[in-house]
Amino acid sequence: QVKLVESGGGLAQPGTTLRVSCAASGATTSTFTMAWFRQAPGKEREVVAVIGWRGVQAGTTFYADSVKDRFTISRDTVADILTLQMNSLKPDDTGVYFCAARNLYTTGLPIRAPEYEYWGQGTQVTVSS
Protein backbone atom coordinates (compact mmCIF):
# COMPACT_ATOMS: atom_id res chain seq x y z
CA GLN A 1 0.00 0.00 0.00
CA VAL A 2 1.13 3.51 -0.81
CA LYS A 3 -0.44 6.57 0.76
CA LEU A 4 -0.30 9.81 -1.20
CA VAL A 5 -1.03 13.25 0.18
CA GLU A 6 -1.03 16.30 -2.09
CA SER A 7 -0.37 19.85 -0.98
CA GLY A 8 -0.01 23.22 -2.61
CA GLY A 9 -2.30 24.41 -5.34
CA GLY A 10 -4.76 27.24 -4.87
CA LEU A 11 -5.69 30.29 -6.91
CA ALA A 12 -3.24 31.80 -9.39
CA GLN A 13 -3.41 34.45 -12.08
CA PRO A 14 -2.66 33.57 -15.72
CA GLY A 15 1.03 33.72 -16.48
CA THR A 16 2.12 33.09 -12.92
CA THR A 17 3.67 30.13 -11.14
CA LEU A 18 2.37 27.50 -8.77
CA ARG A 19 3.79 24.33 -7.24
CA VAL A 20 2.03 21.20 -6.03
CA SER A 21 3.69 18.47 -4.02
CA CYS A 22 2.84 14.91 -3.11
CA ALA A 23 4.16 13.14 -0.04
CA ALA A 24 4.31 9.37 -0.44
CA SER A 25 4.49 6.84 2.36
CA GLY A 26 4.19 3.11 2.76
CA ALA A 27 5.52 0.70 0.15
CA THR A 28 7.37 3.32 -1.88
CA THR A 29 10.41 1.08 -2.35
CA SER A 30 8.19 -0.94 -4.69
CA THR A 31 7.06 2.07 -6.71
CA PHE A 32 8.04 2.13 -10.39
CA THR A 33 6.42 5.30 -11.65
CA MET A 34 4.58 8.31 -10.26
CA ALA A 35 2.44 10.78 -12.11
CA TRP A 36 0.30 13.87 -11.95
CA PHE A 37 -3.17 13.77 -13.43
CA ARG A 38 -5.78 16.51 -13.49
CA GLN A 39 -9.50 16.63 -13.90
CA ALA A 40 -11.49 19.68 -14.92
CA PRO A 41 -15.23 19.93 -14.26
CA GLY A 42 -17.17 17.80 -16.72
CA LYS A 43 -14.03 16.31 -18.24
CA GLU A 44 -12.17 13.04 -17.90
CA ARG A 45 -9.07 12.71 -15.80
CA GLU A 46 -6.01 13.32 -17.99
CA VAL A 47 -2.32 12.78 -17.55
CA VAL A 48 -0.18 15.85 -16.96
CA ALA A 49 3.29 14.39 -16.33
CA VAL A 50 4.92 11.10 -15.42
CA ILE A 51 8.30 10.27 -13.91
CA GLY A 52 10.11 7.00 -13.47
CA TRP A 53 10.62 6.39 -9.75
CA ARG A 54 13.02 3.46 -9.87
CA GLY A 55 14.19 0.76 -12.24
CA VAL A 56 15.38 1.25 -15.81
CA GLN A 57 13.04 4.24 -16.28
CA ALA A 58 14.18 6.04 -13.11
CA GLY A 59 14.28 9.78 -13.71
CA THR A 60 12.80 9.65 -17.20
CA THR A 61 9.82 11.88 -17.81
CA PHE A 62 6.74 12.31 -19.97
CA TYR A 63 4.70 15.47 -20.41
CA ALA A 64 1.34 16.03 -22.00
CA ASP A 65 1.65 18.31 -25.03
CA SER A 66 -0.52 20.92 -23.31
CA VAL A 67 2.02 21.43 -20.49
CA LYS A 68 5.31 20.71 -22.25
CA ASP A 69 7.90 23.45 -21.70
CA ARG A 70 5.77 24.99 -18.93
CA PHE A 71 5.56 22.30 -16.25
CA THR A 72 8.36 20.32 -14.62
CA ILE A 73 7.91 17.08 -12.70
CA SER A 74 10.59 16.09 -10.22
CA ARG A 75 11.14 13.49 -7.54
CA ASP A 76 12.99 13.13 -4.27
CA THR A 77 13.32 9.42 -3.67
CA VAL A 78 14.93 9.93 -0.27
CA ALA A 79 12.10 12.03 1.16
CA ASP A 80 9.53 10.32 -1.11
CA ILE A 81 8.18 13.59 -2.45
CA LEU A 82 6.85 14.21 -5.94
CA THR A 83 6.64 17.80 -7.15
CA LEU A 84 5.04 19.55 -10.10
CA GLN A 85 6.34 23.03 -10.85
CA MET A 86 3.82 24.89 -12.99
CA ASN A 87 4.94 28.01 -14.87
CA SER A 88 3.12 30.29 -17.28
CA LEU A 89 -0.21 29.07 -16.01
CA LYS A 90 -3.26 29.25 -18.25
CA PRO A 91 -6.98 29.14 -17.39
CA ASP A 92 -7.11 25.73 -19.10
CA ASP A 93 -4.78 24.42 -16.38
CA THR A 94 -7.64 24.73 -13.89
CA GLY A 95 -8.69 21.47 -12.28
CA VAL A 96 -8.14 19.06 -9.44
CA TYR A 97 -4.60 17.73 -9.55
CA PHE A 98 -4.06 14.15 -8.42
CA CYS A 99 -0.86 12.36 -7.53
CA ALA A 100 -0.70 8.70 -8.57
CA ALA A 101 1.71 5.82 -8.00
CA ARG A 102 2.22 2.53 -9.78
CA ASN A 103 3.81 -0.42 -7.97
CA LEU A 104 3.08 -2.97 -10.66
CA TYR A 105 6.14 -3.83 -12.69
CA THR A 106 6.71 -1.70 -15.76
CA THR A 107 9.65 -0.60 -17.86
CA GLY A 108 7.81 2.33 -19.39
CA LEU A 109 5.92 5.44 -18.30
CA PRO A 110 2.22 4.61 -18.17
CA ILE A 111 0.00 7.55 -19.07
CA ARG A 112 -3.50 6.15 -18.51
CA ALA A 113 -5.28 6.52 -15.16
CA PRO A 114 -6.29 2.80 -14.87
CA GLU A 115 -2.59 1.89 -14.96
CA TYR A 116 -2.07 3.43 -11.50
CA GLU A 117 -3.13 1.67 -8.31
CA TYR A 118 -2.69 4.42 -5.75
CA TRP A 119 -4.15 7.90 -5.71
CA GLY A 120 -4.10 10.96 -3.53
CA GLN A 121 -7.21 12.90 -2.62
CA GLY A 122 -6.39 15.72 -5.05
CA THR A 123 -5.70 19.42 -4.71
CA GLN A 124 -7.54 22.22 -6.48
CA VAL A 125 -5.71 24.50 -8.88
CA THR A 126 -7.63 27.47 -10.23
CA VAL A 127 -6.13 29.82 -12.79
CA SER A 128 -8.18 32.95 -13.19
CA SER A 129 -7.75 36.70 -13.38
Overview of the molecule:
The mean pLDDT is 95. It is built from no helices and 11 strands. Strands 2, 4, 5, 6, 9, 10 and 11 form a 7-stranded mixed β-sheet that branches. The N and C termini lie far apart (40 Å). It has strands at residues 2-8, 10-12, 18-26, 33-39, 46-52, 61-63, 71-76, 81-86, 95-102, 118-119, 123-127. It has 129 residues and is mainly β.
Identify low-pLDDT runs. none
Number of strands: 11
Helical/strand content category: mainly beta
Count of DSSP-assigned helices: 0
Q: Indicate the radius of gyration in whole angstroms.
A: 14 Å
Q: Note the run of SSEs as H and E.
A: EEEEEEEEEEE
| Anisotropy-based shape | globular
- The biggest beta sheet, please? 7 strands, mixed
Q: Roughly what percent helix?
A: under 10%
Strand content: over 45%
Distance between the termini: 40 Å
Mean pLDDT across residues: 95
